[in-house]
Amino acid sequence: MENRTEWMKDYLKTHNVALIGFMGAGKSTVAKEMGHLFSTEQIEMDELIVQKEGMTINEIFAKFGEPYFRNRETSLLKELSNGHGSVISCGGGTVLRQENIELIKKNSRIILLTATPETILERVKDSDDRPILNGHKDIDFIGALMKKRRQAYEAAADIIVATDDRNVDDICMEIVDSLMKLEDTANV
Length: 188
Ligand code: S3P
What we know:
This protein is α/β, with parallel strands linked by helices. Helix content is about 55%, strand content about 15%. Strands 2-3-1-4-5 form a five-stranded parallel beta sheet, with helices on both faces. Helix 3 (about 45-55) crosses helix 5 (about 65-80) and helix 5 runs parallel beside helix 6 (about 100-105). The longest helix has 20 residues, at about 170-185. It binds shikimate-3-phosphate. Shikimate-3-phosphate binds near residues 27 and 130.
């Protein structure tokens, strides 16, 4: 653990880590824990957009529509694309735009968090903060949307980590181990 912490702190001096994946995959929870474990900044894309716009995500979608929200994601990534030292929790739809993937890849390694539709439903069922899921909180809808997005998620990812039935520390450790291996390979 200590080795990993030191390695990760050092790594973050030159990189960001971006967490991607379906709504409810655990991006915010894992980002928060990584921020805590590695004393690093945690960036919540959704939260920053909400702050900048002075509206909730539901209100942004209702008032201006999804394309407007997607443009806000791209603008925010442009602002973030030169920094380092952060764990960035991306919105679940961020990497559906190729331009966004390229912006993230400028300074971040991309970690895809996955979970089954059953796990996702369990995690999102009590929240109404996600316009895309409101009125569709069922396995069929989640499974179908996940299938539609899977290829884009996987193509963007440097590392894929499953989160079903696991605690957050365990997931964080796997992320660091995988990053260490990836960077080792990249340096050969
Ligand atoms: C979205 C995911 C949400 C948020 C918006 C759209 C999506 O973020 O950006 O509601 O299209 O998957 P989380 O994945 O953090 O819930």
